[in-house]
Recover the amino acids of this structure.
């Protein structure tokens, strides 16, 4: 007799969710291809100007940065898929909150937290 | 997830509508939550922003042939304060819609609302965080780590879940916890907590004190741990349990398991889950597909507990999950329960989604 309005609401909400999630995925893959393109461009343009500025300093800080990022990625793979699917990257300040939350919930070490945050915000 | 079979009244309808309106509002904000682009931040001290995280799920169960629809929404608010504080809270809104003989459609009771936790965390130093408030009882791993519908591999609760977590899955009191590197190849995590008696439903809790500790070997991605709790009321008994999580590095395989023992019952579950990413065909589809199995056994205790089965029970479940993208998952599983009270089949289908909505500007590093 009384059709349950809630059932329809739930189907509606679920359909909306699927739509937003698909839109989000689209945006992300567009961004990934855009950023790959700009990374390619800036790599060819920026190396000479950096070399002019301070080649030594640039090289050492860049390689430190790279090492931290690689270590961060390793820690991410080790820690972030243990309880749930490893998440995508979020904007830096969102990631900072989520990592603080996970530090408490997942009992990450200080070092893991710093390296993962660095990796997740690059 | 809890079950009731009473009927919807109009005040609850209104409140449920308000809940759904809030949820739609959160979803409307969702474009903020697009993943970060290639621009990075070099500074570690990124200022965290308040977040609304949450999950919604639409779960359909067929238990012994009886269909039951179970919509659930669980918003989480995270409020970082300064460099060392975090306020976190999670509420759940859920309902069970069942068919009633002689009536068409599905009918549900009032929407069940519960504040699952509301806690303040103070990160005192690299070794210790102090928590005060109402927090998920850290006995075993399921309650604290795997409970949300978007995380769990199989939608049904393990039979032993109610052991050691109190009447509403949460404790009211204080907890210290932390994780640190004890050796280059070994991390240790620990938590110690005390909960006071609270009889105010639905935020009731038992009076107990407990500990949980785990050893994590990062190179093997293996965690082994144990929980202990002393009940400071009723029979004043001791409870204990063990857990393990292993993700062997060369395989897309997760193996989780838990054992818990109390005077009101004991048992274990083991759950392997395998992503099909190694299959050489339909790679894009296969890497999103996960096969899960769980075997569990429960042994009735000398004292009764309403939340636990009253007789020895065995259950085998098998499921398939498909991850469309970050946070969105469809799952389907079949289980068969064997007990002296009768054997039954349980089918479940579910669609779950986790969203993250920043409640402030997100991009800049400072």
């Amino acid at each position: 007799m009384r059709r349950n309005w809630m059932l329809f609401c739930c189907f509606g909400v679920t359909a909306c969710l699927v739509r937003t999630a698909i839109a989000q995925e689209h945006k992300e893959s567009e961004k990934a291809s855009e950023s790959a393109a700009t990374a390619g461009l800036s790599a060819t343009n920026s190396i000479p100007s950096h070399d002019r500025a301070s080649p030594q300093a640039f090289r050492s800080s860049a390689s430190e940065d790279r090492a931290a990022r690689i270590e961060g990625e390793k820690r991410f793979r080790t820690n972030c898929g243990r309880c749930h699917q490893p998440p995508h990257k979020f904007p830096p300040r969102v990631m900072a909150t989520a990592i603080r939350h996970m530090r408490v919930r997942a009992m990450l070490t200080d070092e893991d937290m710093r390296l993962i945050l660095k990796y997740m915000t690059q | 997830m809890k079950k009731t079979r009473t009927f919807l009244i109009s005040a609850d309808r209104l409140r449920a509508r308000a809940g759904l309106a809030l949820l739609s509002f959160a979803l409307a904000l969702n474009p903020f939550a697009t993943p970060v682009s290639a621009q990075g931040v070099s500074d570690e001290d990124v200022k965290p922003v308040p977040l609304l995280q949450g999950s919604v799920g639409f779960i359909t169960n067929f238990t012994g042939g009886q269909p039951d629809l179970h919509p659930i929404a669980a918003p989480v608010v995270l409020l970082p304060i300064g460099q060392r504080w975090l306020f976190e809270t999670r509420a759940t809104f859920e309902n069970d819609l069942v068919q009633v003989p002689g009536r068409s459609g599905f009918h549900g009771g009032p929407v069940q609302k519960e504040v699952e936790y509301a806690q303040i965390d103070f990160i005192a130093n690299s070794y210790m965080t102090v928590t005060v408030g109402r927090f998920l009882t850290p006995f075993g791993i399921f309650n604290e780590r795997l409970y949300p519908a978007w995380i769990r591999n199989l939608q049904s609760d393990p039979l032993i879940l109610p052991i050691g977590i109190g009447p509403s899955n949460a404790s009211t009191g204080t907890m210290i916890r932390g994780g640190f590197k004890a050796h280059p190849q070994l991390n240790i995590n620990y938590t110690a907590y005390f909960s006071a008696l609270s009889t105010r439903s639905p935020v009731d809790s038992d009076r107990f004190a407990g500990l949980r500790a785990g050893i994590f070997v990062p190179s093997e991605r293996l965690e082994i741990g144990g929980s202990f709790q002393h009940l400071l009321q009723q029979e004043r008994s001791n409870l204990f349990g063990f857990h393990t999580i292993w993700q062997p590095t060369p395989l897309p395989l997760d193996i989780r398991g838990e054992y818990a023992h109390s005077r009101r019952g004991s048992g274990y579950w083991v759950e392997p889950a395998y992503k099909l990413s190694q299959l050489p065909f339909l790679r894009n589809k296969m890497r999103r597909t996960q096969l899960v199995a769980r075997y569990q056994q429960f042994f009735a205790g000398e004292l009764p507990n309403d939340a636990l089965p009253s007789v020895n029970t065995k259950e085998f479940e098998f499921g398939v999950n498909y991850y469309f993208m970050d946070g969105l998952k469809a799952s389907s599983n079949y289980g068969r329960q064997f007990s002296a009270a009768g054997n039954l089949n349980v089918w479940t289908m579910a669609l779950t989604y986790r969203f993250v909505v920043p409640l402030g500007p997100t991009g800049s590093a400072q």
User: Anything to note?
Assistant: Helices of chain B lie at 10-28, 142-146, 283-286.
